[in-house]
Specification:
The chain is an alpha/beta fold. It is built from 19 helices and 18 strands. It folds into 4 domains: 100 residues, Rossmann fold, CATH 3.40.50; 96 residues, 3-Layer(aba) Sandwich (Rossmann fold); 140 residues, Alpha-Beta Plaits; 100 residues, Orthogonal Bundle (Arc Repressor Mutant, subunit A). The chain has a 7-stranded mixed sheet, with helices on both faces. 36% of the residues are buried. The C terminus is likely disordered.
């Protein structure tokens, strides 16, 4: 990850399962955040845990509305506090999962945290007329024990067939008591919305929202494409078509575009808009449109900086890194000189290799891995979603001979960046070795190769 000193610390407080889920969404979708898990074994501990964490975080996100209400009632936190919202989508999902265990006629469900009015509206929207809901109407700030007893008592007395709860602690207690139930859990989209609100509430974000971002664009192999045109008019039309597409893209960023000459362009926008339009530095759809309409690819460099001059310098560095990676990709150089990339130029990355930290760069340099080699390996791994390569595949990616690749592999193995992953049988001769890029594997974490 980039230097943690430049990330916004956010506390994620709640039960372990939900905290882990929020941390994963934050890590994969919000590169500006440094999630800090705060596990709450029971509700009585919430105030102490939150107060102890306060000096180390800029914003706090609670995983359930119940924890939020309790914390707000007990302490004045002094910093932004948010919670995962209760939404229709979570309730729809829980009802769908529970439906197989319900009687076919007039099932009765107990439910907490949703008012009778909101339940009536939701039921009307989805045409759910046969299910009856019994809402919790006890204490204003019920404990998990209160809610569990409400559900269990209704089930034992035969007044309900199952329970719907928004609290994971209550779901656990109902499971122990043998009460059929479903947990109304937030969806990933709910989590993203809550994290967006939390991000916008931070002082750091507000100070960076209007920060200048400079982007540099270069059409890959533009000279070759020009040579294929039969006349000067065709060349001018190509340039006009490229310019038109770039204007449309920069307009979506509320930015300003200018041509630097030849095949290079420069645009200026703000950091807040750029982050939103790239879904948190995940994808640059511009190149997909350029390739589909004109058969061209782009290299892009994005620069962040404390001044326009610094942002422009970083954009040039990032563009150079994109070209070293073979084109059709994008890198970002942040204000602290850390690198983000490669960004996929059409669809979101297949694997989570989007953040390169300074420690990795140092290790690679010590092992004789030049920035050009590192960029190309990052870009190819991001496009293909694989980390295991044969020697000839690596040679092709690095654009060097097989002999030179063998020499580099020995250095990288000595520095524990690469190791032998296995062997591939061939019809004749000795089996071929496959090498695993271990230095990239740890960036995948437990998400493996399935990141989308």
């Amino acid at each position: 990850m980039p230097s943690s000193a430049n990330l916004i610390p956010i506390g994620i407080l709640g039960a372990e399962a939900m905290v882990d889920r929020v941390v994963k969404v934050a890590a994969s979708t919000f590169p500006s955040f440094r999630p800090i898990p705060l596990l709450c074994p029971n509700e009585e501990e919430i105030s102490r845990i939150a107060l102890e964490a306060m000096p180390d975080i800029e914003v706090l996100l609670l995983t359930t509305p119940g924890l939020y209400r309790r914390l707000k009632a007990e302490v004045h936190f002094g910093k932004p506090v948010h919670h995962l919202p209760l939404t229709d989508t979570g309730l729809y999902s829980a009802l769908y999962r529970l439906r197989a265990d319900l009687p076919s006629t007039e099932p009765v469900l107990t439910i907490d945290s949703f008012s009778k009015q909101s339940l009536a509206r939701i039921a009307a929207e989805i045409g759910e007329r046969r299910t009856l809901f019994i809402s919790y109407d006890g204490r204003t700030h019920p404990s998990a024990a209160d809610l569990a007893e409400f559900h269990a008592a209704a089930y034992r007395s035969g007044r309900s067939h199952a329970a719907l709860t928004t609290e994971p602690e209550v779901a656990w207690e109902l499971r122990q008591r043998g009460v059929p139930h479903e947990w109304v859990a937030p969806t990933d989209s709910n989590i993203v919305v809550a994290l967006e609100r939390a991000l916008l509430a931070t002082e750091t974000r507000r100070s960076k929202e209007a920060q200048i971002v400079v982007g540099m664009l270069s059409v890959d192999d533009f000279g070759k494409h020009v040579q294929l045109r039969s006349s000067e008019h065709d060349i001018q039309r190509l340039k006009l078509d490229i310019h038109r597409l770039l204007i449309d893209y920069v307009e979506s960023l509320d930015g300003y575009l200018t041509q630097l000459g030849g095949d290079e362009y420069l645009f200026v926008t703000t950091r807040g808009i750029f982050e939103r339009e790239t879904a948190g530095y995940k994808t640059i759809p511009l190149a997909r449109d350029l390739n589909k309409m004109l058969g061209l690819s782009l290299s892009m460099g994005i620069g962040f900086g404390r001044s326009a001059n610094e942002a422009g310098t970083h954009a040039r560095m990032a563009l150079h890194r994109s070209k070293e990676a073979g084109g059709n990709t994008c890198f970002i150089v942040r204000e602290d000189d850390t690198l983000i990339g490669p960004l996929e130029m059409s669809d979101p990355l297949k694997c989570d290799l989007s953040l390169t930290d300074s420690e990795l760069l140092r290790q690679a340099e010590d092992a004789g891995m030049t920035p050009a080699y590192l960029s190309r390996l990052l870009a190819d791994a991001a496009r293909s979603g694989k980390l295991d390569y044969e020697v000839h595949e690596l040679a092709s990616v690095l654009d060097i001979t097989v002999r030179s690749t063998h020499r580099l592999l020995l250095q990288w193995i000595d520095h524990e960046l690469v190791d032998v992953a296995g062997y591939v049988k061939v019809p004749r001769g000795r089996p071929k070795q496959k090498f695993r890029l271990r230095f990239l594997e740890r960036h995948l974490g437990d998400r493996g190769h399935n990141y989308t």
